[in-house]
Amino acid sequence: xxxxxxxxxxxxxxxxxxxxxxxSDAYHCPTLSNLWYGxxxxxxxxxxxxxxxxxxxxxxxxxxxxxxxxxx
Length: 72
Known about the structure:
Layout: H1 15-23, H2 32-38, H3 44-67
């Protein structure tokens, strides 16, 4: 529970209740990452932010690959 962004969860202060809720199939965990990738990423300003992030990740990985001696 400490590694997740449980700001929006109603079980954020009760770790046992959180574990029980996560184990049940009917509960959908409302962590920030689940909201981001499940709903928000498909709407205008957020999908633009994601596309920019992907371009930066691609640039960094290509740069690291070239530094290690690879050919693109």
